[in-house]
Amino acid sequence: MAENNARRTKHQKTVLDCLKENSSRHLTAKEIVSLLQNEKKDVSTATVYRQLEKLTACGEIRKYITSAQESACFQYAGKSKKSECETHFHLKCTSCGKLFHVSCEYLENLEAHVKEHHNFDVDNTRTVLYGVCGECKNRKK
Q1: Same structural domain, 31 and 74
Q2: Which residue, of 79, 98, 126, is where some domain finishes?
Q3: Helices (H) and strands (E) in the chain, counts
């Protein structure tokens, strides 16, 4: 990554810093633009999209696609420790639409099983389990 830092543009650093500051959640490009505008950063929407693609391609951020009807989300892929964005899975409530991020040893074991026994690598950036969240289930009672 040091090589990438040497060639990083001002706009790329701005977008990456925004994702680092919000690393506990996924952000859409629209949310990033809004956050940067609130900080009085002069970055266009087109520039944000361009930088997100570049940062995704070099592995500094992760892109998550939960459905064809929704915008992709992005998250900083932190390199200092085993990154949450590398190991978490997505649960999507079909009732309220909320997206949950779950770090779970059981799901990691399932992923390892699929790789070992079925010679298949699961792409966590596209893996979403659908169901109904506890809050929506309680509302229906």
Answers
A1: yes
A2: 79
A3: 7, 6
Which domain, by its residues, includes 103?
A: 88-141
* Residues composing the chain: 141
What distance in Å separates the CA atoms of residue 72 and residue 54, rounded to the nearest whole number?
A: 15
pLDDT in tens, 80-104: 334 444 567 888 899 988 888 787 8
- The two tokens of residue 29 are 């490009």
CATH of the domain at 97: 3.30.1490.190
* pTM value surpassing 0.85: no
CATH number, residue 48: 1.10.10.10
Q: Would you call 65 helix, strand, or coil by DSSP?
A: coil
pLDDT in tens, 24-67: 888 999 999 999 999 999 899 999 999 999 998 888 898 887 77
